[in-house]
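User: Hey, quick favor. My workstation is busy. Could you predict this chain's structure for me?
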Amino acid sequence: MTTKRRKDTAPASIDAEVVVVGGGAAGLTLAAALGTAGVETVVVDREPVAARAAPGEGDRTTALTYGSVKVLQGIGAWDGMADEAAAVLSLHIADNWSPLVLQVEPADIGDHPYGYNVDNGAIRAALLDRIDALPSVRHLAPAQVVGFDRDGARIVASTADGTALRGQLLVGADGRESPTRAWSGIPVRRWQYDQVAIVCTLRHERPHQGVAVEHVMPSGPFALVPMPDLPDGDHRSAIIWCERRADAPAYLALPREAFEDELQRRCGDRLGRVRQVGRRFNYPLSGLHARRYVGDRLALMGEAAHAIHPIAAQGLNLSMRDAAALAEVVADARRLGLDIG
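Assistant: No problem, here it is.
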């Protein structure tokens, strides 16, 4: 998989039907969906094209549900990331370390996997390749929106280099601290989970056989999610370990050998000997919910609209549904000759 480097030389003004602020997976998915429908779209991405776009061992992954995979297939982006995806064929959920396990098998949900776990860099690279192939999508990167205004039936987003982006609809896909949401005046409710997520990659002796495991612990869920085997045949899984905020620093400070011993204790012997590879990521867990998702010529999506606990991997999957729903509404209005804003 290759990603074409792309940076537009910004003119003084760009007119489009939709201006998407935010070039993460949510914003790029929306841009690709709109572009596939022929909607003139500008997406503003603060990251350089190459940033976060190269899969690498130890980088973070996202578990995509089958519904999200269908969205990505529909917009022509899935094939570009499929080689970096591991099918989740079965879910095993246990209360703490109980020997009793709730098993969800493919036959319980249909003739397809529950979902796929994909390297985040591969997701971004495939989406960038897809929008690069769509003539109706313009991708500005790196670029940052620094102000908003209204001009009759248009909203104008101004970038740091002085470019005015004019569109009938402005979409805030710019994350939890969304400047678009702040400018619109839409209130937001926030809450804390008093937990920290510890995320890393494991290599292990035995194959995972497509089984994702989640232990629902008093301190928070501890999950193992399948990853693709490496070319040398080594088996891998992603760890998402939610720990009490007061206790997490002690685990994060463990030297590698002691950290691996703790992971081994939690993983048991199903996968054989485990060892950590790459980096350990950690981030505090919190949630938010915007009081409304739409305004005058404005829509919020992804974590600009809602952010939740990573349990059941619903975060980006909800964003994918946002992108599909919003693109469908815009494309239908456009086809009928209606004002898409």
